[in-house]
Amino acid sequence: PTKNDGKAYWLHVYNALVIKAVLDHWPLASVNDVKAPLEIVQGYGFFYRLGFVVGGKTYNLYDLEHDRVLKQWQDPRAHFVLNCASSSCPAIRPALPTGDDLEAYLNKATWDFLGDPRNVRVNHEQRTIFLSQIFKWYQSDFINDLRLRGQPAQNGIVDYLIDTAPEAAKAELRKAIPYRIEYVAYDWNINKTVPHKP
């Protein structure tokens, strides 16, 4: 009934179908282990070749992410909720609210991702900002969001981080504006929780 309900629906659909794809091909060490007869690009078998029927239409995971979520809703916070079953992905969040509650949820997911040093880390000695590959792959989504909100983007992705990061990280990022950016290698191993031993 509302824009946020629609957005939550497609976020749910994507995450649920990623889990289904992993379970259908279990055991897996990585989503890249699901191969197509011809692997054109890494992950082709998992993200492009597998088909899922949603509302009478067949989608692959790539189309669900890009057409039904990112292009339709143009909300870069989705990048911090969509989970591709890999260790470098954002944390999977089983409880995904709908309606008005979705806004606070997306903001929290964004702050959690940006506040994690595996995704955003400033090293002043090396004069380097280490970032998740997500910020490289989807840089235009983040920059376009800044521009749509009337915010400056002359420092590229760093301006997005400064505008969006938790308050504690903003000062560090402002100091790091002239630093170089290094994107951390993406870990495609299946994300899983190791059970605690009693």
Provide keyphrases for this structure.
198 residues; two-stranded antiparallel sheet; mainly alpha; 5 strands
Quick take:
With 198 residues, the chain is mainly alpha-helical. The chain has helices spanning 3-24, 44-49, 61-73, 101-114, 134-137, 139-148, 157-164, 167-175, and strands at residues 52-54, 57-59, 120-123, 128-131, 180-183. It has a 3-stranded mixed β-sheet.
Shape: globular
Residues in helix, %? 40-55%
Average pLDDT metric: 90
Strand % is: 5-15%
Tell me the Rg in angstroms: 18 Å
Structural class: mainly alpha
Number of helices: 8
Low-confidence stretches: none
The largest beta-sheet arranges its strands as 3-4-5
Cα separation of the termini: 46 Å
Number of strand segments: 5
> Topology as H/E string?
HHEEHHEEHHHHE
What about the largest sheet? 3 strands, mixed
